[in-house]
Amino acid sequence: MGDIVVYDCEKNNSYCMAMGPGVDLIKVIGMPGDIVDCTKKYADVNGQRIFWQGGGSIIWGTEKYGEMPDMKLRVPDGEYLSDQWVGIECSPDEKQENRTIAYDRYTVKTEAIAGIIVKKIRHDEEFEKTLKNIVY
């Protein structure tokens, strides 16, 4: 817990309606099996609090909620709870007024984790020059 991990949004099913590279960073605040005390606005786990993004529909493991219920939930097996919103999972099979329903995701699946950040180092001059030449 507390590790910063690199994960692949596509493998995490949290890449719906996203732009840019499909790799992101998160801080892990909940391990599989941890109990999360949820309200409609935020969740508390292991002394950390996360606020739900916009109060939309939320996916938790395989369970889908119109909004996060006031209850205790367990971090699903094979998933890790992030300290922030990690993306949107879309279900093309579910339609609402002729559009796909989008579910906010706050967990990262084990198979989506590409690595763990071990050490932060500062940029050197050569790296800074390289960054200046990148055009988005």
CA-to-CA gap between the ends? 34 Å
> How many structural domains are formed by the residues?
1
Quaternary structure = single chain
Which structural class is indicated by helix and strand composition?
Answer: mainly beta
Describe the 3D structure.
With 136 residues, this protein is mainly beta. It has one domain. It has 1 helix and 13 strands, in the order βββββββββββββα. The chain has one helix spanning 125-132, and strands spanning 4-8, 23-30, 35-38, 42-45, 48-51, 58-60, 63-65, 71-74, 79-82, 87-96, 99-105, 107-109, 113-116. The longest helix has 8 residues, at 125-132.
Summarize the model shown:
The protein has one helix and 13 strands. It has one helix at about 125-130, and strands spanning about 5-10, 25-30, 35-40, 40-45, 50, 60, 65, 70-75, 80, 85-95, 100-105, 105-110, 115.
What are the defining features of this structure?
mainly beta, 5-stranded antiparallel beta sheet, 4-stranded antiparallel beta sheet, 13 strands, 6% helix
Strands, helices and their partners?
Elements: E1 4-8, E2 23-30, E3 35-38, E4 42-45, E5 48-51, E6 58-60, E7 63-65, E8 71-74, E9 79-82, E10 87-96, E11 99-105, E12 107-109, E13 113-116, H1 125-132
Parallel strand pairs: 6-11
Antiparallel strand pairs: 1-2, 1-13, 2-9, 3-4, 3-8, 4-5, 6-7, 9-12, 10-11
